[in-house]
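Q: I'm writing up a methods section and want to include an example of the input and output format. Could you take the sequence below and give the corresponding predicted C-alpha cells, formatted cleanly so I can copy it straight into the document?
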Amino acid sequence: MTTKRIIACLDVKDGKVVKGVRFIDLKLKGDPAELASRYEEEGADEIVFLDISATIEGKEILLEKVKDTASVLSIPLSVGGGIRSLDDISKLLSNGADKVSLNSVAVENPQLVTLASKEFGSQAIIVAIDAKKVEKGWRVFIRSGTADTGLEAVGWAKRVQNLGAGEILLTSIDRDGTRNGYDIELTKAVVGATKIPVIASGGAGKPEHFLSVFSDAKADAALAAGIFHDNVISIRELKRYLKGKGLEVRT
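A: Here is the clean output for your methods example:
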C-alpha cells in the first residue's frame, strides 16, 4: 500500500501566512517559519509555501522568507508564486526549496515545465491547477483564481504530465476554505486521467474528509491549511485517525 502524505500549506502574502475562503477574505495566521516548524513537529510530511500575491502584483519572490522557512525544516519544502523563469526556479532551489510549484506561468509558458524538468529533474517540478466547476466539468483559473484560462482541468492535467511535471497540486476553488470536504469528483477525474502523484487541496474540515479523498478519490497526498492553523485538529491526531482506518501514513 502506498504511504499517503499529509501536507501543510502556508499561503503567504507580504511575508505573513494568511487564509481565506475561495481565495478571498484573507485573515492573518502567523509567521511562515514558526508555523512550518510547528507542523513538522506535529508530523507533517511536507510543507507547501505559496506566495499568493507575487504573480498578480508582479512582485519578486520572497527569497529571504523561503530561506528562513527552509532553515527550520528537515522535511521537503515546496514553493510557488511569482515564478517566471528557470533562473527563478534555480534561486528557490538554491535557497532551500526542494520543489517548486508552477501555476500561472505553466499556462502562459508551458515550455518552461519541460525545460525545468529537464534542468532540475521532474521530481522537483509541481504544476498547480486551480479548478472551478462549470457545467460539464472544471475550468482552470490562474492568477490566484482571478483569470479564467478556458482550459478544461482534466485535459490540462494530462498535458502537464506530458510536459514533464512530476506532480500535480490540484485545488478546488469552489471548496477552498469552506471546510465542506475535498471535491472528490474532481480529484478522482484527475487521478484517473494521469499517472503522476496528485495532491488534493481545498475543503478539508475534518478527518473524514481526508479519509474520503484517499479512499474514494485515490489521491496520493492531501493538503490543508485552515484546520491546522486554527487547531481544529493536529496532524498527529489526523494521522492516528487515518492509521486506525487502515491507511498507510508515516508516523
